[in-house]
Structure formats: C-alpha cells, structure tokens
Q: What sequence folds into this?
C-alpha cells in the first residue's frame, strides 16, 4: 500500500455514539434541493427533501427517503402518486416553507395539481410526476421509488445544499482565477485586475472564507456557530427564528449550532426562548473578532489606511444598494 499521510479529522467515531457528528460527515456530500409532494385525503402534503436521487433510465425511476417521524409519513407511505420539484436558486423560501412544521405549508407557495393531484411547485427548474413503484425499509426512513410518468425542464440554476448551507451552482473559482491569470486562456496582458468587480468580490469572499476556516477550527467553532455569535454581538436577545433569518442557514443547522453553543455555555436563553451571549460566549466572540482583525492586518499590510477606507466605502455603498434593491423587489 502507498504510504499516505492522513489529515487529522475534525471529528470521527461510531455514528451511534454521536448522531449529529455523523450527520455533519454526511453533510459533506453536496445535493440539490427538491420539494416532494402528494395529495392525501383531498389535501396537499409535501416536504423539502435532499435525499432525492435518480435511479434508472429504463424503466425511468427515481428514489428518495422520508423520515418515519415526519407528519407527512403516513400520506407518502400510502400515496399512489407523488411529484418531485427540483428547486431553483431563487427558491430558498419555498425550501424553508416546505421544511417547516406549519399546518398549511402550501398556502403561500405557488403550485398546480399534477398527475394524481400531486402538487407541483411553480418556478422549479425541473419537475417529475411519478407513480409509486416500490417502497423499501430504510431504518428510521422508508425509501420511496417512483416511476416517472412525465418530466419537464425549465431554464435556471439549481439550488444546492451542502455542509448545512444553501448554495448556488458556480464555476469553481480556481478555474476563474486561472482563466484570468493563465496566459494560455486569458487574452495577453490580462490579470485579476481586469476581471469584473463582482467576480473579484466573489473570489475574495470565497478564498478569504476558506482561509479563515483555519482560525474557526483552532477555536473549535463552526461557520454557523461563528455567524450566530456575530449576530448576537450586533443585537440581542434574538429569537431562534430571527437567528435563522440572519445567518442564512437552514433551521436544522441553526438548531444544532444553538444546541452546541448552549452546551458549551456560550449562550443564555430567556423565558421567551430568546438567545443572548453568556460571558463565555462574549469571550469566544471577542476571540474570533481578534483573530479576524489580526487576519485583516496580515492580509492588508502595506495598503494605506486611505485606500482601505475607500474600499470600505465602495463595498458599503454596494451592499446598501443591494439591500434597497431587495426591499423594492420584495415590495413589488
Ligand atoms: C435541505 C433539506 C433537506 C431535507 N431532506 C429531507 C429528506 O430527504 N427526507 C426527510 O424525511 N426530510 C427531509 N428534510 C426535513 C423535512 O423537510 C421536514 O422534516 C418536514 O418537512 C417536516 O414537516 P412534516 O413533519 O410536516 O412532514 C429536509 C429538510 C431540508 C431543509
């Protein structure tokens, strides 16, 4: 066997001993996001699901799994038909609504009845209308295999889900940077400075976030936990729901991170279920902030305070403009 030097795992062990850690390892696998829906006793029933997978071309089969604990379990285990709507990048709200435990998940989303009455989501980038082909045991889930009777594909980019976060499909930054820097692929004399500003922002964000990950690891803190600390430093106390809104992570990921921070003694929770930082939480937040300041000092050494101020101004104006635009779009 080749002599390999293995990196130290962040966590490891028996899945039964720590199911959350097991789920985090599984979360390293990136997926798309679907809404799977059926009609049960005359009413639409559906869940957000990323366990969806294609299975067979001939016959045309797909599969997914539903938790036995889901309130929609009985409806799907008895369903003759179900629909799969593959969500686009602008459908995070649909994913959030359909993964909630609200009574009427379908009230505020646009859908139409497909084959067998199964609700199909408007705005999806692909839809599959299925009859139930087989149902298999799968531990605390059941696996539903559907035979695709009708498929539709629309333009648009997929909504992704990986490592507890939503994402979008984008060219790998290594290719973009290469295209800019590589004399073979870029026009002669072209450098990073010639790229559009938005591409530069993306590359800066992506690479700095990856570089800062080392510091989070040294503090033994995840990206979600660090975003929660920073949200609670800006304003507190905050309800779980406002935290979910501010950190751009799914409710489940936020719940896990809140649980871990509580266990670590970093959070306090008042009688109204609102969270704020404990003394230990404030210390951890301060220590992350100091690491960030140190990181910025290193990265921007040699750039004058004036130029950094201008950069701050430009970025702040850009972000404010985007926020105003989003508010106008929401109101429209
Ligand atoms: C991105 C994402 C993917 C999910 N994937 C699944 C899945 O594959 N199977 C499942 O049973 N639940 C999955 N869930 C959770 C369900 O959507 C959620 O438990 C369900 O909608 C709760 O509602 P119910 O109890 O009314 O059925 C997922 C949630 C999210 C946010």
A:
């Amino acid at each position: 066997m080749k002599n390999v030097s293995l990196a130290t795992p962040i966590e490891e062990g028996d899945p039964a001993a720590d199911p959350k850690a097991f789920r985090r390892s599984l979360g390293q696998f990136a997926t798309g996001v679907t809404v799977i829906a059926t009609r049960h006793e005359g009413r639409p029933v559906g869940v957000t699901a990323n366990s969806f997978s294609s299975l067979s071309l001939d016959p045309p089969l797909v599969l997914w799994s539903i938790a036995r604990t889901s309130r929609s379990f009985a409806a799907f285990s008895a369903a003759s038909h179900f629909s799969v709507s593959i969500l686009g990048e602008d459908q995070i709200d649909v994913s959030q609504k359909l993964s909630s435990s609200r009574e009427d998940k379908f009230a505020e989303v646009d859908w139409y009845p497909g084959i067998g009455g199964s609700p199909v989501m408007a705005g999806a980038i692909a839809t599959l209308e299925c009859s139930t082909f087989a149902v298999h045991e799968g531990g605390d889930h059941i696996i539903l295999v559907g035979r695709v009777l009708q498929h539709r594909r629309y333009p648009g980019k997929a909504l992704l889900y990986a490592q507890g976060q939503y994402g979008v499909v984008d060219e790998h930054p290594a290719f973009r940077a290469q295209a800019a820097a590589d004399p073979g692929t870029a026009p002669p004399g072209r450098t990073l400075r010639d790229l559009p500003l938005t591409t530069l922002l993306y590359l800066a964000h992506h690479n700095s976030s990856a570089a800062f990950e080392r510091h989070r690891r040294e503090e033994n803190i995840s990206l979600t936990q660090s975003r929660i600390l920073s949200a609670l430093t800006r304003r507190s106390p905050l309800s779980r729901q406002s935290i979910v809104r501010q950190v751009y992570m799914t409710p489940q990921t936020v719940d896990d991170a809140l649980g871990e921070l509580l266990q670590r003694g970093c959070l306090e929770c008042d009688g109204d279920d609102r969270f704020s930082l404990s003394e230990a939480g404030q210390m951890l937040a301060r220590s992350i902030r100091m690491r960030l300041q140190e990181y910025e000092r290193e990265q921007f050494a040699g750039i004058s305070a004036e130029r950094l101020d201008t950069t701050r101004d430009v970025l702040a104006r850009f972000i404010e403009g985007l926020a105003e635009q989003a508010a106008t779009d929401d109101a429209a």
User: Anything to note?
Assistant: The chain has a mean pLDDT of 90. The longest strand covers residues 126-138.
